[in-house]
Every structure is written in C-alpha cells, then in structure tokens.
Amino acid sequence: MAVRSLWMLAACFFFMLMALFAKICTGHFSAWEVVFYRSLVGLVFMTAVMVRKKVAFGTRYPLSHLKRCAAGTLCFALEVSALKLLPLGLAQSISYSSALIFIVFFIASSLARRRPVEWPLVAVTAAGFGGVLLIARPGASGFDPVGVALGLGAAFCGACVSWSLRELAGQKEPRERTVFYFMLAGVLAGFAATAAGSEGFHAVEPRHIAPLLGVGVSAVIAQIAMTYAWTYGHPILNSIYDFSGILFATLAGILFFGESPDLFSVAGMAVVFASGAAASVMRLLSERRSAGA
Predict the structure, then answer these.
(1) Is residue 237 predicted with pLDDT exceeding 80?
(2) How many CA atoms within 13 Å lie on the side-chain side of 143?
C-alpha cells in the first residue's frame, strides 16, 4: 500500500506539467480556450474508458455532479488565469492552499454537528495561511494582486471540488463517470465562454498543437495516477505526497521561465507544504476516529 502511494508523486508531477503547458498556452489562448481544449482531450479519453469498462453514462445524482463540475471547471479557469499573471511556482503554491481551505470546511462541519474541534488542527491550518501570506505578499517577486486573487479563488473552488467529491464517493458513483461529466462540463463551458467572448477562438497554428495536447494529456495521466493512488495507496502518505506539486512547480519555474523566488517566498512555500500535509494527515486521523466511535 505504501509503495502504491508513490503514484501520488506521479500525479503531482503531471499536474505540474499541465500547469506548465497551460502557462505556455496563455501567451496565445484565453483561459476558457485552454479549458475547452484540455477538457476535449479528456472527454475523448474518458468516453473510450467508459465504453471499454461498460460504465453507464446515466446517473441518479445529477445535482451532485453539477456542483462538482461547476466548482472544478471554474477552478481550472481561474487557475489558468492566475498562471498568466503569476510565476508558476507562486501560482501553484497558492492553489495548493485549497487543502487548507478544505480543512476550514471540515472544522466548520464539526462545529455545525457539535463535534469536538481539534485545536492543533486549527493551529496548523492557521500556520499554513501564514505561509500563503509570505508567498503572496506585496513586493514579492512576480506579485500581482489580481493574479493572487484569481489564485485564491481557484484554491477556494478546489476545496469545493474536494468536498463535492466526498459527497459523490459516499453515493458510490464510479470515478470514471465523475471524471467524464467533469470533462463534458469543461468542453461545454469552455466553448460557450469562448464563443461569447470578444475575441472568440484564436487560430490554432502548428506550434500551438504540442502545448495544447500537453495540457490535455498530462491532465488525463495525472487523473489516472491520482485515482490509482487514492484507490490502492495509503491515505496519509497520499496527503503528504500531494504537496510535492509545490516543489515540482518551483523547480519548473526556475528551469523553464527563469523565475527566482526570494527567501520569504521559499519560506512560505515550505510552510504551506508542511502545514498542508500535516493538516491533511490530522484530518484523516480525526475522520478515522469519528468513524470508529
């Protein structure tokens, strides 16, 4: 089980590649165009998977899928918009604060259900947001207030995605169907938003094909690796490895875009990494204790 959690490292690496290709694409395409092309590649792949595995396309939980699709599609659109304005490492570090926002949802749920709140979890989460402030402070290298706001919006939507996925898992919805509807929603929303925009669809030249395919293919591989890790791996190790994406994105920003995060930003990334991983582990342990009570 522990070895299979290494698939989470692969997932984070390919999600980083997805962000890298998306950032390249933003030089020519709008955020919603990137959403459309990324989702189109994923939709073709997931349709083939659904047919091969004989998974029914119909669902008894359309509202649950609608919530997941709305949050997920908006999350990716905001993330791509943030990537256009921020250095890769900074943008990805902010997006990983979604795990901390999810912990806030978890704490609020505990309070609503009158369950005891684990204050160490609150403290670790607060420390994580302190790390976000170190990364996204005015004066930081590559700081853009609009980009930071978009990144935080993406993080909030990402936390909503995680919450809705828990709901779908509780309803025993097949993961293939969940991903299929997410890709379908991305295609429809991306097409509608782009067509309604002032610029419409930009011409796809030969030099654009590789990064566009890179966004879609890396996203599909990342989804497969993540699904495998959460299906067969150790949940605590998965939560820890999940934050390796911050390191991957920082290194990619240095190598491909010449980004040079300052000492405060590096410290903030380390705090987000450590506190996010610790908070996720503590949350899993808390849920296990509640389930065993």
Answers:
(1) no
(2) 14
Structure tokens at 66: 């609608």
Q: How far apart are CA 162 and CA 124, in angstroms?
A: 19
Contacts (Cβ under 8 Å, ≥6 apart) of 188: none
This prediction's pTM: 0.87
| Residue 291: predicted pLDDT | 66
Q: CA-to-CA distance for 145 and 84, rounded, in angstroms?
A: 13
165 phi and psi angles, rounded to 5 deg: -65, -35
Give the separation between CA 8 and CA 13, rounded to whole angstroms.
9
How many angstroms separate the CA atoms of 292 and 286, rounded? 10
**Contact in structure between 256 and 41 (CB atoms under 8 Å):** no
Cα(258)–Cα(57) distance, integer angstroms = 45
Least confident range from 117-121, 143-147, 157-161, 260-264: namely 117-121
Q: Cα separation of 100 and 275, whole Å?
A: 8
